[in-house]
Each structure stands twice: as structure tokens, then as C-alpha cells.
């Protein structure tokens, strides 16, 4: 079954995604479970228009981007291996350094 | 009749005398003496005196926070015995330090290497118009001291680095990260772990702010969250990204709140929790963070970092947020503002490409009608087509001149355009130093932002 989830971006990460902070997306039916590990390349292929290196490095997000799954640090949820569920909210935050 | 007049005059005289007394008292508040780098090593290890009793003036002054059961006499005594080091006297450091002073923190250290500029005043609210050019640490210390003369304020006019950070941090109980760059954030984090001090970290850009407390009661450090520094090209400073003053103001106030709660023994709310503030959407979001990472090279079970390192090298970026001067173009592809001015005077046939954002185009532009292609769109097909169209309508082949605010983006744009037009013999150049150079050398009435 296709999965409906919400992707959010902040701290400037939204600038890479059409300057839009909130994206409701539907992940197509897939043989295996959708994980963050399979979501990231899907985002790169379907959503990222330019300069993918500002979002990803290798198979994960670039240093300086924090990933949250339903308001929790993804480190607490299994990082790339986390199995995505219907209505999950996944947030990508670019760390701010200004002051 | 005479009598009432006499008594009125006496009353007025009394009022004026009181006013003189008040002003005299204000005059005696001197700007605290600035501590230079060499002096921090000779400073003694004295702490603010541990207080056992509040005096009547303190009871009155702090009464409204004193009657909070969470603070009480015990909490206020702890606050007045505490010392807090605020690193950065800017958009975060100004609001945080003034609230620390107001609450009666015993000793406040203020670190900044910079001087006050006009572009700071919209957010760095302790500095006034009269303080432009004055060292920021002294200006902020003066403001704090003026609000509360009982607080000890120590301005440090220095850039925090690997050789002075530990010495300074050791002298304080709590540290506030109110800095503006990645390298200093790693430096402060490492120094706070090595000296075992809680670090109240704030940051802000555009309409957004972030806040968290590191190294408190087994919570994570900055490196637990960010083991690798971000690629320098992904880091935006306030000068390039912009920032609304109230946003660092909000985060700075919350930093002060967390520091006061730690000092009073209440404990912070944002250890292992991050606050994300979005001033545009009006949202505050609390995020649960990972705990201390056993694999952390600094605070983990087998730390490999046991002393401070070279943070500019580690981050590949300088430890300030000053404008960088890029040099990517061959001098053959660059012209000076004088040469460009000559082109305008002689009516030289050229296309001017301004690569700034739309908002910046509204602020000011050169007298020659430009094509506006923001830098992030310069290589796109549509942009190249726009330039092509302009080239074809011109009878005589024009040259292309690219301009931006400071002469960095214009070089990147020329590099891209040279690749896109590599099969033509198109003459593409950028203006060295951009509009800032134009304002400095050609038109001194041209606005600088």
C-alpha cells in the first residue's frame, strides 16, 4: 500500500526544496518496507531539483542536518533503518550558526 | 501669596537637587575596565563571594522574583554567587547578558573581539548609536553595569581560541554560546566538556532560532549531535542570510532563562531537548534529542580528543562571520569599478547581469539597466536563454559584465557562464568588489548594506 507521510524542512533546508517548509507526499507501493534509508534517495530523485550535495552525502544526510521522526531525534529511532509508517512526520533541520 | 511662591520654589529646588544627586550617581558608573588576552592568565581564581544573606536593598530589588517559591532566598543567593561567561556580545549575547544582570547574577564575563557597527544595532540592542566603533564587550558590559551596578561585569576584548578558551572558561560556572560561527561553536563545546561546564547554546538566522543545553547532567554535547562539521558552503551567516532582530532576541532571553535556572538550582528545561523557534510561523517546537553518545570522540567512553585542537582547520572555515574574499577567477576576467565606470561613460556596449536576489535588487542597483539572474539560477537553461536573447537583439556583439554585492558571487557566476558559453568568444567579466567597491570608489552616495 502507498504510504502518505509529511516531510518538513527548516533552518534553511527548505531552500533546497522549492522554498516550501511542508510537503505532503505519497510514497509509492514498494516490495520492501520504506525506511529512511530508502526515503533519502527517493527524495533526491523526485524532489531535489539542484545541488543534491547540499542535502546528501553518500547514502545519508550531509553533516549539519538533523533528522527528526515525529519530533524525536532519528538516532533514538534507528536512523536509516527506521521503518516509515503512515502519517509519520519526518523533519530535516539544518543547524543554525548565526547570532 | 509670597509664602506659597516661596514654598513652590523650595519644592522645585529640592526636586532639582535630587535630580543632580541622581545624575551624579549615574556618572559614577564607570565602564568596567576591558580585559585583554594577556591578562586572563594572570587573573586570580577568585569567585564571586558565596553569600549567606540578602541585604535590604537586594530584597527590594529582587522582590518580584524572590517571592517565587522556585527561587526564594536560597535561589537568589545562588544566583548572586554564580558566574556566567557570555561568549559573543551580539544578537544573542546582548539580550542574554542584560537579563542575567537584571536577575543579579554575581559575575558576568562578556567575550567579543569585534567593534560595534551600524548594521549591528537592529538586533544587538545593548549597543547604541554613540557606541559605533567601540569594542562590543565594553559596550555590553557598560549597559549591564548601568542596569545593575551590583553585578560584576568583566569585558574581554579578545577572540576565543584554543590557547585561551580553557583558561577563561575555568573561571566561570556556566557558559553561554552566543557566537556566530561553526568553528567557535566546536571550540566552546570542547572547552566546556574538558572544563566540565554546562553550555547553554543559542543560534538564530532569518526568522528561525534554535536553543539547547549541552553537557548538563549526562546530556549530550555538540559533537554527540554533530560529529562532523558542515561543509562550509552550506553555512549561512546573518550578513548573507539576513536576520530579524527579535529572533535572536527571543533565543537570547531563553538562554538567560536557562542559565538563571541552572544557577538557582532549578535545572534547565533544554538538556537533551532542543527548542526550534520559527518566528514566521509563530511556532515553538520541542524536540527530544539523543543522549550522550558512547562513541563521541570528546565525551564518549573512549575519548580521542583530550585537548583543544585547531578549529578553523577542523571546520575548514574561519572563526568569525566576516565576509570572505573569494578569488576564483583569472584576473583577465575581472574589471575594477573604475574600468566599469569608464565603460558607462564611453557608452560601451554591454549586458549587465546582476546576480543578487530580488529583494536586494529593490534596495539599490547600478545606473545601467541590468538583467537580474539570482546566483542560484545562473546556470539554468532559462537564464542562459535570457542572456542569449539579449545577445541576439544587439547588432554589435556586446560584452557581459556580472555584478553582485561584494564581488564573490559574481566570480562564481562568471565561472558558470564561461562554461555555458565556452563555444562562443563572448567576453564575460565580473566587477571586483561588487557594489561595495562601487559605493566606496565611484559613487559615495550609493547605499551599502
From TrEMBL, chain A:
Localization per record: Cytoplasm
Protein origin, superkingdom: Eukaryota
Biological processes, Gene Ontology terms: protein urmylation; tRNA thio-modification; tRNA wobble uridine modification
Keywords: Cytoplasm, Isopeptide bond, tRNA processing, Ubl conjugation pathway
Listed Pfam families: Urm1
Post-translational modification 1-thioglycine, affected residues: 99
Residues forming coiled coils: none
Glycyl lysine isopeptide (Gly-Lys) (interchain with K-? in acceptor proteins) cross-link site: 99
Pathway: tRNA modification; 5-methoxycarbonylmethyl-2-thiouridine-tRNA biosynthesis
One cellular component (GO) term of this entry: cytosol
InterPro entries membership: Beta-grasp_dom_sf, Mopterin_synth/thiamin_S_b, Urm1
CDD domains: Ubl_Urm1
PTM text: C-terminal thiocarboxylation occurs in 2 steps, it is first acyl-adenylated (-COAMP) via the hesA/moeB/thiF part of the MOCS3/UBA4 homolog, then thiocarboxylated (-COSH) via the rhodanese domain of the MOCS3/UBA4 homolog.
The keyword Cytoplasm is annotated on this UniProt entry: yes
Reported function: Acts as a sulfur carrier required for 2-thiolation of mcm(5)S(2)U at tRNA wobble positions of cytosolic tRNA(Lys), tRNA(Glu) and tRNA(Gln). Serves as sulfur donor in tRNA 2-thiolation reaction by being thiocarboxylated (-COSH) at its C-terminus by the MOCS3/UBA4 homolog. The sulfur is then transferred to tRNA to form 2-thiolation of mcm(5)S(2)U. Also acts as a ubiquitin-like protein (UBL) that is covalently conjugated via an isopeptide bond to lysine residues of target proteins.
UniProt cross-references to PANTHER family, sorted A to Z: RURM1 PROTEIN (PTHR14986)
Similarity-based family: Belongs to the URM1 family.
Protein name in the entry: Ubiquitin-related modifier 1 homolog
Automatic annotation (TrEMBL), chain B:
Top EC class, one word: transferase
Alphabetical UniProt keywords: ATP-binding, Cytoplasm, Metal-binding, Molybdenum cofactor biosynthesis, Multifunctional enzyme, Nucleotide-binding, Nucleotidyltransferase, Transferase, tRNA processing, Zinc
GO cellular component: cytosol
Positions of the catalytic residues: 238 (glycyl thioester intermediate), 404 (cysteine persulfide intermediate)
Domain Rhodanese intervals: 346-447
Source species, domain of life: Eukaryota
SUPFAM superfamilies with a match to the protein in the record: Activating enzymes of the ubiquitin-like proteins
BP terms from Gene Ontology: Mo-molybdopterin cofactor biosynthetic process; protein urmylation; tRNA wobble position uridine thiolation
GO molecular function per UniProt: adenylyltransferase activity; ATP binding; metal ion binding; thiosulfate-cyanide sulfurtransferase activity; URM1 activating enzyme activity
EC number of this enzyme: 2.7.7.-, 2.8.1.-
Family (UniProt): In the N-terminal section; belongs to the HesA/MoeB/ThiF family. UBA4 subfamily.
Entry-linked HAMAP family: MOCS3_Uba4 (MF_03049)
Functional note: Plays a central role in 2-thiolation of mcm(5)S(2)U at tRNA wobble positions of cytosolic tRNA(Lys), tRNA(Glu) and tRNA(Gln). Acts by mediating the C-terminal thiocarboxylation of the sulfur carrier URM1. Its N-terminus first activates URM1 as acyl-adenylate (-COAMP), then the persulfide sulfur on the catalytic cysteine is transferred to URM1 to form thiocarboxylation (-COSH) of its C-terminus. The reaction probably involves hydrogen sulfide that is generated from the persulfide intermediate and that acts as nucleophile towards URM1. Subsequently, a transient disulfide bond is formed.
Protein name: Adenylyltransferase and sulfurtransferase MOCS3 homolog
Highest classification ranks of the organism: Eukaryota, Metazoa, Spiralia, Lophotrochozoa, Mollusca
Amino acid at each position: 500500500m502507498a504510504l502518505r507521510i509529511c516531510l518538513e524542512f527548516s533552518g534553511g533546508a527548505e531552500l533546497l526544496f522549492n522554498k516550501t517548509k511542508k510537503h505532503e507526499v505519497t510514497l509509492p507501493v514498494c516490495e520492501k518496507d520504506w525506511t529512511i534509508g530508502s526515503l533519502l534517495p527517493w527524495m533526491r530523485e523526485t524532489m531535489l531539483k539542484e545541488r543534491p550535495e547540499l542535502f546528501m552525502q553518500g547514502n545519508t544526510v550531509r553533516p549539519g542536518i538533523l533528522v527528526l521522526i515525529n519530533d524525536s531525534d532519528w538516532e533514538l529511532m534507528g536512523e536509516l533503518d527506521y521503518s516509515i509508517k503512515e502519517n509519520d512526520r519526518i523533519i530535516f533541520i539544518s543547524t543554525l550558526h548565526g547570532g | 501669596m509670597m509664602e506659597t511662591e516661596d514654598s513652590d520654589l523650595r519644592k522645585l529646588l529640592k526636586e532639582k537637587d535630587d535630580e543632580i544627586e541622581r545624575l551624579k550617581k549615574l556618572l559614577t558608573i564607570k565602564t568596567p575596565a576591558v580585559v585583554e588576552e594577556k591578562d586572563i592568565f594572570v587573573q586570580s581564581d577568585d569567585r564571586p563571594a558565596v553569600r549567606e544573606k540578602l541585604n535590604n536593598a537586594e530584597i527590594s530589588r529582587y522582590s518580584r522574583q524572590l517571592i517565587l517559591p522556585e527561587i526564594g532566598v536560597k535561589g537568589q543567593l545562588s544566583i548572586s554567587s554564580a558566574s556566567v561567561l557570555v561568549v559573543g556580545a551580539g544578537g544573542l549575547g546582548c539580550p542574554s547578558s542584560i537579563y542575567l544582570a537584571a536577575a543579579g547574577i554575581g559575575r558576568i564575563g562578556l567575550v567579543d573581539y569585534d567593534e560595534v557597527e551600524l548594521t549591528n544595532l537592529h538586533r544587538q540592542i545593548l549597543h547604541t548609536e554613540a557606541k559605533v566603533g567601540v569594542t562590543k564587550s565594553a559596550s555590553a558590559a557598560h549597559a549591564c553595569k548601568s542596569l545593575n551596578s551590583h553585578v560584576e561585569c568583566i569585558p574581554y576584548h579578545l577572540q576565543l581560541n584554543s590557547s585561551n578558551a580553557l583558561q577563561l572558561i575555568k573561571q566561570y560556572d556556566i557558559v553561554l554560546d552566543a557566537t556566530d560561527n561553526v568553528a567557535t561553536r566546536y571550540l566552546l563545546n570542547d572547552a566546556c566538556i574538558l572544563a566540565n561546564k554546562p553550555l547553554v547554546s543559542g543560534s538564530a538566522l532569518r526568522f528561525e532560532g534554535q536553543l539547547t543545553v549541552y553537557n548538563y547532567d549526562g546530556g549530550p554535547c555538540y559533537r554527540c549531535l554533530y560529529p562532523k562539521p558542515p561543509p562550509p558552503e552550506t553555512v549561512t551567516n546573518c550578513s548573507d542570510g539576513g536576520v530579524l532582530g527579535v529572533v535572536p532576541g527571543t533565543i537570547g532571553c531563553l538562554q538567560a532563562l536557562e542559565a538563571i535556572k541552572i544557577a538557582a538550582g532549578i535545572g534547565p528545561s533544554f538538556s537533551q531537548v532542543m527548542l526550534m523557534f520559527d518566528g514566521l510561523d509563530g511556532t515553538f517546537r520541542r524536540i527530544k534529542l539523543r543522549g550522550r553518545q558512547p562513541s563521541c570522540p570528546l565525551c564518549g567512553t573512549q575519548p580521542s580528543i583530550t585537548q583543544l585542537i585547531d578549529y578553523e582547520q577542523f571546520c575548514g572555515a574561519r572563526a568569525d562571520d566576516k565576509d570572505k574574499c573569494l578569488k576564483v577567477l583569472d584576473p583577465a576576467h575581472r574589471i575594477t569599478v573604475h574600468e566599469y565606470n569608464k565603460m558607462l561613460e564611453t557608452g560601451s556596449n554591454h549586458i549587465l547581469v546582476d546576480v543578487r536576489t530580488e529583494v536586494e535588487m529593490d534596495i539599490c542597483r547600478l545606473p545601467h539597466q541590468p538583467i537580474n539572474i539570482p546566483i542560484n539560477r545562473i546556470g539554468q537553461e532559462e537564464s542562459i536563454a535570457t542572456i542569449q536573447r539579449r545577445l541576439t537583439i544587439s547588432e554589435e556583439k556586446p560584452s557581459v559584465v556580472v555584478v553582485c554585492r561584494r564581488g564573490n558571487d559574481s566570480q562564481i557566476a562568471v565561472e558558470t557562464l564561461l562554461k555555458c558559453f565556452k563555444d562562443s568568444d563572448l567576453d564575460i567579466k565580473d566587477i571586483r568588489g561588487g557594489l561595495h567597491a562601487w559605493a566606496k570608489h565611484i559613487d559615495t552616495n550609493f547605499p551599502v548594506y
